[in-house]
Hints:
single chain, 331 residues, alpha/beta, two-stranded antiparallel sheet, 12 helices, 37% helix, 21% strand, globular
Amino acid sequence: MSKALSRISRRRALEGAAAGFVALGLLLWWLLPLGEEPPSGTITFSTGTRAGVYQEYGELLRNELAKDMPQLKVRLLTSDGSQENVKRVATGQADFTIAAADAVDTFKIGDKPVTDRLRGVARLYDDYVQLVVPPDSDIRSVADLKGKRVAIGLPDSGVRLIATRVLEAAGIDPEKDITPRSDGIDTGPKRLGHELDAFFWSSGVPTDGLEKIAETSAFRFVPIDAGLVAKVHAQGDAAHFYRATNMPESAYPTVQNGDTVPTIAVSNLLITRKDMDPRLTEWLTRTVIKSRDGIGAHVHSAQLVDLRTAIYTDPLTLHEGAQRYYRSVKP
């Protein structure tokens, strides 16, 4: 080979190597901010009931955060659900949590809303309201729940909030017209058919607690049609966060047999407080977005986390640290 060709080959090799380093650098920039020491310390993350999606998501996110911030300790706290989660973050008992948008908008300390002290990190995925009955039940609509034993969720859960609104929209007084029970997804499915005639659940789908029951027992979903959703909307206030939709047929295939289920959906938000460290929040936001596929392999609803919609955290404004991250990846 001539010296000229040799020089050309070396130059092309160097150019190729340089291009490779640039590509690697961009990849590392997406995964972790270059030149920064990862945040350390301890944060508390409030999740949900043990058989619910919030808890599973929290466990998986903690594993992902350990990869990016090995010196950050993440303490998980189980909870009743959205209402308790909002209260914990607002009062400093927790630093981050997941909560449904209606619960965030509804919660007040005294007579004051907490949206001035809370901030959004990301819109995650939608919860679907699931009204479950035995397969041979005579309950075909929400109105048929009158006189029945109905689990409406734990006292501080988002389920309790939305179930109450749905019942009232159907003309049912949750205190007088049914026998209300405070079961969640951890106990409701086991009591269905002998201690309960129906139970409400609201979460991303599928929920592990219902999936396991579907493997060994039969149940049926009661539809919540668009007409009833319109009546819920007429209640005003936080009800505007609900939307009529269909639970996909793939949620519980052995139960739905290829059919969708008319129901209500509400967005879930990852939230924190206004005073949370911006740098830590920026790193956490980055991990949430980039771990979507990894977490989504185990929590199906997490696959819906999307960079384009994550910024819409109404009724909360974005935290300063989350804003930094979204700006850094904006095309």
